[in-house]
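[Discussion] Sanity-checking designs against the backbone

I'm trying to build intuition for which residues belong where. Below is a structure token string of 69 positions. I'd appreciate it if someone posts a full sequence so I can compare it with mine line by line.
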């Protein structure tokens, strides 16, 4: 693995849930318009940070989690 997880488990669950919920909302509200695609991709990116447990912006900020998570 070439990255170190920097998102704790509770936050990963929250990110996945919020990302998928926002993705469903963006599809139902905006459909396949350009705005819907942009919002959908950003929501999918947010959900993927929870899925992988790594957030590039948190890494830039120097965020680390303890080894118990």
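Best answer:
Here's mine. Compare freely.
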């Amino acid at each position: 693995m070439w990255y170190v997880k920097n998102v704790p488990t509770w936050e990963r669950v929250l990110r996945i849930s919020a990302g998928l919920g926002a993705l469903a909302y963006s599809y139902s509200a905006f459909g396949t318009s350009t705005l819907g695609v942009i919002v959908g991709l950003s929501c999918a990116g947010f959900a993927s940070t929870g899925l992988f447990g790594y957030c590039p912006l948190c890494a830039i900020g120097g965020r680390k989690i303890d080894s118990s998570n």
